[in-house]
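note to self — DONT lose this again. spent like an hour looking for the file last time. sequence + predicted structure for the chain T wanted, 538 res
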Amino acid sequence: MKKFRLSILSTSLLLLALVLVGCGNNNAESKKSINWMTSASIESLDPSKAVDVNSDQILFNAFRGLVTPDGGNKVKLSIAKDYKVSTDGKIYTFDLKKTSWSNGRALTAKDFEYAIKRSANPKTASQMAYYMANMSNYNEIKNSKKPLSSLGVQAVNNYKLQIKLAKPQADFINILTLPIFYPQLKSAVDKYGSAYGTMSNKMVYNGPFKVTKWTGSNDAWNLTKNRYYYDNAQTKLNNIKYSVIKDPSTALNEYQSGKLDQTLLSGKQQYNNYKDSKDFHLRKTFTVNYLSLNQMKIPEFSNIKIRRALSLIINRNQLIHDILGDGSVVSRGMVPNTLAYRNGKDFNDYAGVADATSTNVNRAKQLWKAGMKELGKKSINASIMSSNDGTNKNVAEFLQSEMEKLPGMKVSLELLPSNVATPRSLKSQYQISISGWDPSISDPISPLNTKYSTNPINTSKWKNNEYDKLINRSNDQDALKPAKRWDDLVNAQKILLNDQAIIPLYQIGKPELIKSNIHDVRYLGNGPVWDFAKAYVK
């Protein structure tokens, strides 16, 4: 009997041990997964075609290029184990690590050569290919004067890549962090054809994670640990579960209920309610939001007095304090504050134009009256296009009320989903657009280059010959002369602002909550934003 009872007790202890082990495994597994939110869906997983911040963020965690961002204007080696630059600054030679694709195939220099040529190919119609403009023969290829095979990139052997430039370029190593320079596997592109990059299972990856469960139209997906990633041992998370949540109240409720480990805060009420929380973080982004005026759609916008009046009528302080209230600040130009410094002074301390970024109602009405007289007009009707999330909707409504303070100005709103508004903006299908630019690299040339006359991102088609000359000079004879190049870019922004080519609004502050047990999620400020490669839950 005693033996029997002992046997029962032993069995019970064994069952209890199994339960505890099971709980321990579940707890361990919970530390391998986090739940993240974003306000917009992926638009493309094709590195040659992605243009928006959300897609770049996902691509960065699913791919690795030759080098990766390392904060500010610094980079660190990734697939490249080292590189050298020729004495004339025109030839970059990279020695590659031996790495693999997510399907187990070896990744070679040929995958970089193919990808870069694919991004440069006019048939690909990459919106970001202009970053390749200084590569040898790119412009001739773009204009169908030379074959794609002549582009200045070559796989010397399986693990050596050479890139040739037409002239030295100060920021070229930073530019190589962009998705259009990520490797791509030709066999995958050929296999999936037009479906390549349109859903997560029509791709292969070489980064710390693979994208899974994205169908191309759904608002949820996963970043799943890639066992073939070369630095896999440092990747602690098995899964990052992404959800698109456009309503800030819904996101906050899910955070409070434990369904999310991170959430963006929106508006001054949430900001004020949580600014003292241990989970609170205020991210100072490099994104500048501005109004783009399409002179092709509204010819009256070609009048500089009209453009200046529309800028001066906007009370930016009221906008950032009463409408936003989220830590955003008034922008001082196309280039964001704190992006670049010289001699301890911010770029905008040199390149700011107060009249282009300030408020003066009386002056606005005087300019408006004079501009309308020159045009022979009594009224102008225009629409503001914006994405329809809560913050942008509130901003659009505020701008509508501000602009209608000008006699005869009638403003309507087009509030659209982000994945509709962005393509329309890129095709110049708007009258006034609330636009934003998050510099892909930490150099003033990134935002300023978007207003170069022939740049595809220059959707308002504003053109100024002197501006183009300064951008060209910064990229040509002054490329390796830091002081002169700086002056070129300073003067370029002054031209842009004096001509009111854009109406600067605000530089985005991004308040958010992240559970305090989540560590080593790197915030990069611009470009890819988040790096989860070494994140963990404690």
